[in-house]
Design a protein that fits this description.
The chain is globular. With 559 residues, the protein is α/β, with parallel strands linked by helices. The longest helix is centred in the C-terminal third of the chain and has 22 residues. The structure holds 6-O-phosphono-alpha-D-glucopyranose (G6P). 6-O-phosphono-alpha-D-glucopyranose binds next to helix 8. Pathway: Carbohydrate degradation; glycolysis; D-glyceraldehyde 3-phosphate and glycerone phosphate from D-glucose: step 2/4.
């Protein structure tokens, strides 16, 4: 098990620090490429599987690394026991130490043991998963075929997923990413925010006779979700009148049977999962019901299968060829030695426009920690700020800062070789991909004096200041990830790739990537404050700022 040791105490860490200090000026992409014509083939690796057919190329050659840096990074992974910690996760050990839980989202995409899956000895992890998947298959097929009827005998044509955080972001991202495979006569909506506007605007588009509400909440205690679900039920009953009709229009995805039944949803309409599924790793579980309804169960299973292939790769490939490990280590090089604060995810595929949003929770909630598992305060940076947008939109918005700003922003570029929408004879995709190739090239190599002089011509080049102002150094690092096509299997593999990257980084930093105590404290405080809001006299126990703000609100609200 990862010990919670400070990463900065590892010998390999110290060596990397020394390397960075003494040789940083030699990590210049222009020179590194000039010196080694084999750099691309040396620093790229392909992940290829046949069932499902997934083909992903990771090119990490445009990074500020050489063989020595890489050797140091792999040594760090070994010294931090990354392999052991990975195996502990797969074995169901309780690596989420603060909550004493296993971390087994990998079990959710595990095929049945009879089909070669791992046998994981944790409640539900082997047979339970298959049972819930069978329930999801049956139910999603009933909705898609129209055989599930609403209270007036009409088929369902609108699905509203009510959930927040992991119970929202995963289904949102995946249903967007795989929209191409969706059943287009089913309208999908997601309500997450407690702000009544979110629910109100969605309900305007719904007909109670043909709407299915999916209440998605691991704990079934999350204030936003329960409040939204109660209000949705009230809205529904205004038309349906009879509470017995709720059974046809509300289902729940949760670990909390008691909470679900207390809400008025019967156990038969509940899709179970387990406490070893972290919210931000949960769309592989029952939380993915809206995905299965949208794209069909077989496609949903392909998402799981693609992820399972990546799990196998992560588990059995040596570190030097292991995609998640490579991404994690290169990320650590910038995060901890160069002091980069962020990591941009830039998919050149419009279907992936929610990919960065999704990993904002996945990465930042996992690795936004300052204390290691043994309680020491870290003296290095942990989780980066994750952000991004789909290309080429980002190019016309924030790329300038990546190109020439003072901050180092390592970027991952992702793109499919084949588009799902080859309109205008494939012209759009060629233009899109020319940008996908051009941006990392420009970031890496910038614009040299020679290029500027050539561009300006002999006369204007006399102006030294002008020439100087137009040169830019480049040397901005990127990873490029090319994949064949955005299929369900490929999406599953890509998401698992980033999940495991997060796991490896957390292991090296010695932190618990699987709890979220900061978020939980905010929830507790909000509940306490809610009770004090009716009467200013009740506002006690806060600092003067919080008290002042609450009092101002109380004086200004329109009650
Ligand atoms: O699924 P729920 O129990 O409603 O939780 C929803 C979300 O709550 C919090 O924000 C947690 O930090 C998230 O990890 C979780 O996904």
């Amino acid at each position: 098990m990862a010990t919670g040791k400070l990463a900065s105490d590892y010998e390999a860490w110290k060596k990397l620090q020394a390397l960075y200090q003494s040789k940083r000026s030699s990590y210049v992409l222009k020179d590194l490429f000039a010196a080694d014509p084999e750099r691309f083939s040396k620093y790229s690796v392909e992940f290829k599987t046949s069932a499902p057919a997934v083909d992903i190329l990771l090119d990490y050659s445009k990074n500020l690394i050489d063989t020595e840096v890489l050797a140091g990074l792999f040594a760090l992974a070994r010294e931090a026991n990354v392999e052991q910690f990975r195996d502990d996760m797969f074995a169901g050990k309780h690596i989420n130490t603060s909550e004493d839980r296993a971390v087994l989202h990998i079990a959710l995409r595990n095929p049945p043991v009879s089909e070669g899956g791992w046998d994981i000895k944790e409640e539900g992890a082997t047979t339970g998963v298959q049972e819930v998947l069978a329930h999801m298959k049956e139910f999603s097929e009933q909705i898609r075929s129209g055989s599930w009827k609403g209270y007036t005998g009409k088929a369902i044509n609108t699905i509203v997923n009510i959930g927040i955080g992991g119970s929202d972001l995963g289904p949102v991202m995946v249903t967007e990413a795989l929209k191409h495979y969706s059943q287009r006569n089913l309208q999908l909506h997601f309500v997450s925010n407690i702000d009544g506007t979110d629910l109100a605007e969605v309900l305007r588009q719904c007909d109670p006779e043909t709407t299915l509400f999916i209440v998605a909440s691991k704990t079934f205690t999350t204030q936003e979700t329960i409040t939204n679900a109660e209000s949705a039920k009230e809205w529904f009953l205004t038309s349906a009148k009879d509470k017995a009709h709720v059974a046809k229009h509300f289902v729940a995805l949760s670990t909390n049977t008691e909470g679900v039944t207390a809400f008025g949803i019967s156990e038969a309409n509940m899709f179970q999962f387990w406490d070893w599924v972290g919210g931000r790793y949960s769309f592989w579980s029952a939380i993915g019901l809206s995905i299965a309804i949208s794209i069909g169960f077989d496609n949903f299973r392909e998402v799981l299968n693609g992820a399972h292939e990546m799990d196998k790769h992560f588990k059995s490939t040596k570190l030097e060829e292991n995609l998640p490990v490579i991404l994690a280590l290169v990320g650590i090089w910038y995060n901890d030695f160069y002091g980069a604060q962020t990591q941009a995810l830039l998919p050149y595929d419009q279907y992936l426009h929610k990919f960065a949003d999704y990993f904002q929770q996945g990465d930042m909630e996992s690795n936004g920690k300052t204390v290691t598992k043994d309680g020491s305060r870290v003296d290095y940076e942990t989780g980066p700020i994750i952000w991004g947008q789909s290309g080429t939109n980002g190019q016309h918005a924030f790329y300038q800062l990546i190109h020439q700003g003072t901050k180092l922003i390592p970027c991952d570029f992702l793109a499919p070789a084949e588009t799902l929408n080859p309109i205008a004879g494939g012209k759009h995709h060629e233009i899109l991909l020319s940008n996908f190739f051009a941006q990392p090239e420009a970031l890496a190599f910038g614009k040299t004096e020679q290029q500027v002089v050539q561009e300006l011509g002999p006369k204007q080049s006399q102006n030294a200041a002008l020439v100087k102002s137009k040169i830019f150094e480049g040397n901005k690092p990127t990873n490029s990830i090319l994949f064949q096509k955005l299929t369900p299997g490929t999406l599953g593999a890509l998401v698992a790739l980033y999940e495991h990257k997060i796991h490896v980084q957390g292991a090296i930093w010695g932190i618990n990537s699987y709890d979220q105590m900061g978020v939980e404290l905010g929830k507790v405080l909000a509940k306490a404050i809610l009770k004090q809001l009716p009467d200013p006299k009740d506002v006690t126990g806060h600092d003067s700022s919080t008290t002042g703000l609450i009092h101002w609100y109380q004086a200004h609200r329109n009650k």
